[in-house]
Specification:
The chain is of the alpha/beta class. 43% of the residues lie in helices and 25% in strands. The protein has one domain: STAS domain (Transcription Regulator spoIIAA). The N and C termini lie far apart (44 Å).
């Protein structure tokens, strides 16, 4: 895209071991690939949080990359992704990934409306283990 710039993405590991990724701007397959590498590098476990309030759109191949990349993280113990995705367009892509991951890998995605819903969703998941 002419005039576009690559927006830096951020993935970190919290003290409790949960991986947190903050997507910004347009999500590409390359971004998704980088996130999965970061997840592995940071020794991701059962839970992965996406704070995607800054995500504005996604490339068509980002959905396929997410399904393929996230399903491979099951072997590292990934069971639940919690995503705060307020943008309706990005939320639509996240919903496609959610349905596909559930069927292909048994990895669940909880898409929440508000960032404040993340921690209660995480605690509920921990209690159910």
């Amino acid at each position: 895209m002419k005039g576009s710039r690559k927006v830096p993405q951020k993935t970190t590991r919290r003290a409790d071991g949960v991986i947190v990724t903050i997507p910004e701007g347009r999500i590409s397959a390359s971004d998704v690939h980088d996130w999965t590498l970061d997840y592995a590098r940071l020794l991701g476990g059962s839970y992965w949080i996406f704070l995607a309030a800054g995500a504005t759109s996604y490339a068509y191949d980002a959905v396929k990359a997410a399904v393929e990349g996230f399903s491979k993280q099951k072997k590292r113990g990934l069971t639940l992704i919690i995503a705060h995705v307020p943008n309706p367009l990005v939320r639509m892509g996240a919903s496609v990934v959610k349905m596909s991951l559930r069927q292909i890998a048994g990895v669940e995605i909880e898409i929440v409306d508000k960032e404040e819903q993340i921690e209660p969703t995480l605690e509920r998941a921990r209690r159910m283990r």
